[in-house]
Design a protein that fits this description.
alpha/beta, 14 helices, four-stranded antiparallel β-sheet, Rossmann fold, binds zinc ion
């Protein structure tokens, strides 16, 4: 095809999409909803079946309540697994909200179905095969705490957090993960101390890993602290090591089981995991004192999908129910009564401090142009993710494979080599994103 022809074709396409948009508000092809290829995924779970019921279906955005949305990805990470809990477990039907810009799972497990996934945490993340038990880091185990484990943890934790090498205690005799957690979370302590002037505050950490942030604030700032943990082991250790009241998180009916108000509520990787995110934020809001703060950390940036070339199937594991960029996170908080005071990216995730303000409907929606850009970004990233699949997962896309490759080739980010194999072309200034320049966004 000659250059003249290409230009004429692209001019025609653009005009056509403009006409379509004026005529019936139909989005151009590259912004359209992505539909489920409807392949029948056989599930081969021998015993221990996931409860079939309890799939929650959201008609509105679970963050801001808007109805306008575009489907951007039918699947979570289970689509890549050979073995899936059942045929519906991979289908989350992620949609991009036209008001806040957050991508969220419109179908997600609730009640016993969610608890089943949590009880099979390692398997659901792909770290172990279903039906096997992973022998990973003992202190962070997701399995139920037995009397034997409790006795062992008590013995190991008795040495405390700061176990000096010169004492000659073997690494199997104490818990090195306690100090590792202090080190990796020290960045949050630094920010909290620098950005807030807290005098003997009441602080809660939700989804505390091993108590290091609240442990440090308690020790050096005289804070009155509380913690909520994901698993029994963590709850036990936080109480044992730091003497901090700790309860488990109920994701389905999220509540804070300690007396309020708090001056600061810290939440680790919670917004992306929350089953009912706006209810989660409302609960935090209600439990903060007037002008109190929420500090979010480990909230993934969807730039990893849109700009950094990661597979969206791989990134959106079955616990990742919300995905956002920096601006969508700011809007998500604004829509729920929080004003961002500080936000930055650290190690690929967002750190964000926001203040509780009066909740109003007067927050700034995503501009139409930016929304359209985000939808086409997801469209391209979806096609790229399909092309990245292999083996059994690739077979699941057999009915849409040709069309996907054709679209990706037309969009300039895929090509066939001499042997007919499809290859992704990672282009752009950073050398990663899918054949389009990421625009600079002014705030
Ligand atoms: Zn929304």
């Amino acid at each position: 095809m000659g250059l003249q022809e290409t230009l004429a074709t692209s001019w025609w396409r653009r005009s056509l999409s403009r006409i379509r948009r004026i005529a019936g508000n139909t989005p151009p092809d590259h912004e359209k909803s992505i539909s489920d290829p409807q392949t029948d995924f056989s599930s081969e779970m021998p015993q221990d079946q996931i409860p079939a019921k309890h799939i929650l279906v959201f008609e509105d955005c679970p963050i801001c309540g808007s109805k306008a949305r575009t489907m951007v990805n039918p699947f979570n990470k289970f689509v890549l697994f050979d073995q899936q809990p059942d045929t519906r477990s991979s289908r989350y039907h992620y949609a991009l909200c036209h008001e806040c810009g957050v991508v969220s799972a419109t179908r997600r497990p609730g009640g016993p179905r969610y608890r089943w996934l949590l009880e099979h945490f390692e398997e659901s993340l792909g770290r172990a095969a279903f039906g096997t038990r992973r022998t990973g880091k003992f202190s962070l185990s997701s399995y139920k705490l037995t009397d034997d484990m409790e006795a062992k943890l008590t013995r190991l934790a008795s040495h405390g957090v700061f176990v000096s090498d010169h004492l000659g205690i073997g690494r199997k005799e104490y818990l090195p993960s306690l100090l590792a957690d202090r080190f990796s979370n020290s960045v949050h302590i630094e920010l909290i101390r620098s950005l807030l002037s807290l005098k003997t505050p009441r602080v809660l950490e939700i989804r505390s890993r091993l108590g290091s942030i609240v442990g440090s604030l308690k020790q050096t700032d005289g804070a009155e602290v509380y913690a909520m943990a994901l698993f029994d082991n963590q709850k036990f250790l936080i109480q044992q090591v730091y003497d901090i009241p700790t309860e488990l998180i109920d994701f389905e009916r999220f509540h804070i089981p300690f007396p309020r108000p708090f001056d600061l509520i810290i939440a680790n990787h919670m917004l992306t995991h929350a089953i009912h995110p706006s209810r989660f934020l409302a609960t935090v809001h209600k439990n903060l004192s007037l002008g109190g703060h929420i500090y979010l950390y480990n909230e993934p940036d969807d730039a990893e999908i849109l700009d950094e070339g990661k597979s969206m199937f791989n990134t959106l594991n079955p616990f990742h129910l919300q995905a956002f960029d920096e601006e969508a996170l700011i809007r998500a908080l604004a829509a729920n009564g929080f004003q961002v005071k500080f936000i930055t990216r650290h190690a690929g995730s967002f750190l964000c401090l926001a203040q509780a303000v009066e909740k109003t409907d007067n927050w700034t929606r995503i501009p139409a142009k930016q929304s359209s850009r985000r939808r086409s970004g997801y469209r391209r990233a979806y096609d790229a993710s399909v092309i990245m699949t292999s083996g059994r997962a690739k077979e699941r896309f057999s009915t849409v494979w040709d069309a996907t490759v054709e679209r990706a080739t037309a969009n300039g980010f895929a090509e066939k080599d001499a042997s007919g194999r499809v290859r992704l072309i990672r282009s752009g200034r950073t050398g990663h994103h899918w054949g389009y320049a990421k625009p600079k966004i002014k705030s």
